[in-house]
Amino acid sequence: MKPFAHTSVVPSICRLCHAQCPVHVEGTDAGVTGLRGAAGNDVYHGFTCSKGRALPAYHASPERLRHSQVRAPGGEHRNVPVAAALDDIARRLSVLLDRHGPRSVALYIGTHGYNNLLTSQTAMAFMEAIGSPMTFTSVTIDQPGKAISSALHGTWLAGPPSIEQADVWLATGTNPMHSMLGPVNPGRAFGRARARGMKLIVVDPRRTELARRADVHLQARPGEDPAVLAGLLRVIFSEGLEDGLFLAENADGVDELRAAVEPFTPDSVSRRAGVAAADLVTAARLYGGARRGVAVVGTGPNMSGRGNLTEYLSKVLMSVCGHWLGQGDRVPNPGVLIQWPPRRAQAVGPTPAWGFGERLRVRGLGDTAAGLPTAAAADEMLLDGEGRVRALLNLGGNPLLAWPDQTKTAEALRRLDLLVSIDPVLSATGRLSDYVLAPTMFFEAAGCSALSELLGAYVGWGYAQPYGQWAPALVDPPAGADVVDDWKLLHGIASRMGLTLRVKPISTLDPTLQAERAVEIPPSVSLDSEELWAALLRDSPVPLDEVKRYPEGHVFAREEIVLAREEGHEGRLDVGNLAMMDELAAVAAEPGGAPGDAAHPFRLISRRLPHVHNSSWHAHEYRHRGALHNPAYMNPGDLEALGLASGDLVEIVSARAIIRGVVEAESDLRRGVVSMPHCFGGPGGRNDDAVVGANTSRLVRSDVDYDPHTGIPRMSSIPVSVRPVTAGGVGSG
Ligand SMILES: Nc1nc2c(c(=O)[nH]1)N[C@H]1C(S)=C(S)[C@@H](COP(=O)(O)OP(=O)(O)OC[C@H]3O[C@@H](n4cnc5c(=O)[nH]c(N)nc54)[C@H](O)[C@@H]3O)O[C@H]1N2
Ligand SMILES: Nc1nc2c(c(=O)[nH]1)N[C@H]1C(S)=C(S)[C@@H](COP(=O)(O)OP(=O)(O)OC[C@H]3O[C@@H](n4cnc5c(=O)[nH]c(N)nc54)[C@H](O)[C@@H]3O)O[C@H]1N2
Ligand code: SF4
Ligand SMILES: [Mo]
Fold first, then answer.
1. Lowest mean pLDDT among 174-178, 255-259, 302-306, 679-683
2. Same domain for 163 and 226?
């Protein structure tokens, strides 16, 4: 019995993005008709965005697959009963495993694989059951520097202050106002923090919605973030703003760090990054002078080269200033659905960042703290020989639009013996897939706030309170639809292969406990999704049944203060990691600041739009000048110099490819950059259409200018030139 049988407005959770906003869904038992923010919620305060408010439209969309699809020999897709699809997929996977071994089968967990924890946990259990190490995720083409820098620097068990506790916030290349990757309801959270005196520093080539609220906006050239952060550290040391006591007790490598930042004088940073030296000094004084602070890095710098170093220096800034929570401080979120390790004022020392696990066959890459390099997944499909990847399970991702180097990705996906996507629409990747398995969507499935709670593991993200919410399935799938929850599709394949899945719990982060408490699902045993959630959350600090008692979401009465360091504890942070100091020396030795080579004088940078989520659901809500394309935003001065005006069609040329874009004036951008959203492009990855947009990943090469460990190539700050499309004159990318 679904809740709409009883009432017409029901509380639930939006699951279009990681923010998981509580919402009030209007509908009947025939379907959802409307959606509002959950006014009265003490954490989100009624927040929703236009994407969330469009969920009812997505549910009803004609684009939405009501049946799984099989690709006919001619390339077109037609309906197939899900049972028949799973039979054939299981048979073909078994043949590949027999003939070519486990490495021939790879998994890619994309954004909507992650957004649904049951699915990602089940998928990892599937890979373990077949013995394949080839799991790729969007993490290594997103912000791999986060996990790498934590491994190199070590972690502070008490964690960072929340937005309610911080006296200063340094945001480098992230725009939570649009991305929602940051504190919950970022507009309100930053507004309130600013009102109580928190200082805000933003480093971004664009005057973003966050930068407009900043005390200091360092509108630096893209890719110069290591120099900017090293410059801040140098001022902090030279003015004695470091926390000497914290460093003496908890960190190694201070002398190495001091020496390594020495070349980054305010004047030299000013020259290379194009920011005023006085602003850099002001920012350093604001940051270093505060008691508790946060330094957070986003996708921009992670994709602009040297992302590990930028993320590392950002954590080092927190440690050098002793900005982490200390003994006696309030723990923002002691945990509701997730058991966090006890918060103590002590360091866990560095752990291996790379050089372990599966080796890839290209570019010397291998497993890392952030996972296997997704930028090399296409190479693993293309390169002949022992171990070639021949099948890919694509879970809620869209490789053809999202992976770097679109041309190579297309060739690789076409070469596969078997490509299976789990996706509620026929995406660009779906069109190349042998099967597209149609899952249930959003309000047809149960969900909870565990994902947002898990984001609290990262500096600057997640809940500032012990908040939890559960949302049961609200509506049935459309009449006649042949769809099931994503994880059941994977279980269906596993059952047919005779595999028992050992699905790891969500509620604990301890690997030993995860292995011990795994939920066994033998072939042909069926659980319903609510039972699986309950099993995977059975060790939660607040029992799931208690969370369910508050359908509107609830702040639970859990209080914790940071404990003292344990007697005899020896873990120390490393602020002078050798590899990072070497990389910083390499930055110091580069001239920096060059806008690109003469042939490619602009830098194309990534950005997000408030009403579009990566490649999903472009046909709804989002329109720019009546079309669905991703504008190429440029400074009006640059447009004028090129003889261009908003709405003009241009060619954007990199060393790799040419795409077409429609330029749009944006005075918030610094000159010399082109800012263009990613994950656009037409059916099958078509790029020559100013109506549906062009794919910026086509401009990227994955085998030059990549990180030697995570493999992430330059996906932002790409050297390009821009030229008008003259009538009749152009080819397409
Ligand atoms: N509305 C919306 N929300 C989303 C998404 C979406 O597509 N739409 N995507 C989701 C995903 S998958 C993720 S990972 C998160 C990402 O979340 P964020 O990292 O906050 O992403 P952006 O909002 O694109 O912010 C990146 C910023 O980096 C800047 N930038 C680009 N290059 C550089 C550089 O070299 N240096 C510096 N300092 N800045 C640079 C850009 O101008 C931009 O303002 O957002 C998530 N949320
Ligand atoms: N050049 C460049 N490239 C980039 C980026 C950039 O900034 N610049 N950003 C990178 C980042 S941060 C990321 S995370 C990746 C994104 O990489 P991906 O995750 O591979 O791409 P998405 O577009 O998010 O793919 C989401 C897919 O999930 C489907 N979907 C929507 N709802 C559901 C659902 O309920 N269930 C299921 N199963 N599927 C659903 C959508 O139809 C879509 O096909 O792209 C990366 N690529
Ligand atoms: S930010 Fe928007 S899309 Fe994301 S969960 Fe909230 S309402 Fe949904
Ligand atoms: Mo992402």
1. 679-683
2. yes
Residue list, ligand 1 pocket, CB within 6 Å: 17, 111, 142, 172-176, 178-181, 203-206, 208, 222-223, 225, 298-301, 304, 605-608, 610, 612-614, 675, 716-717
Q: Which two tokens stand for residue 222?
A: 């893209």
Answer left, alpha or beta for residue 322, where phi above 0 means left and psi between -120 and 50 means alpha: left
Predicted confidence at residue 596, as pLDDT, reads 63
Task: Give the count of beta carbons closer than 10 Å to the beta carbon of residue 128.
Answer: 17
Same domain, residue pair 476 and 612: no
Q: Is residue 368 part of a domain?
A: no
DSSP 624: B
Give me the sign of the Cα torsion angle 721, 210, 25, 623: negative
Nearest ligand, CA of residue 609? 1
* Residue of 133, 134, 125 whose CA lies nearest to 500: 125
Written as one string, the DSSP assignment of 172-220 is ES--HHHH--SBSSHHHHHHHHHHTT-EEEEE-SB--TTGGG-SEEE-P
Indicate if 151 and 132 belong to the same structural domain: no
Q: 477 CB under 6 A from ligand 2?
A: no
Q: Is the CB of 402 under 6 A from ligand 2?
A: yes
Instruction: Answer yes or no: do 286 and 177 share one domain.
Output: yes
Residue 444 CB–ligand 2 contact under 6 Å = no
- DSSP assignment letter at 730: -
Distance in Å, CA 140 to ligand 4 centroid: 9
In a domain, 218, yes or no: yes
Number of domains the chain contains: 3
Q: Whose CA is nearest to atom 14 of ligand 1?
A: 142
Domain carrying residue 307: 144-349+573-581
Cα 417 from Cα 397, distance rounded (Å): 19
pLDDT 10s digits, 150-199: 999 999 999 999 999 999 999 999 999 999 999 999 999 999 999 999 99
- Whether 118 is in the pocket of ligand 2, judged by its Cβ within 6 Å, is no
Tens of pLDDT, residue by residue over 401-435, are: 999 999 999 999 999 999 999 999 999 999 999 99
> Which CATH number is 245's domain given?
3.40.228.10
| pTM > 0.85: yes or no | yes
Q: Could you tell me if 303 and 155 lie in one domain?
A: yes
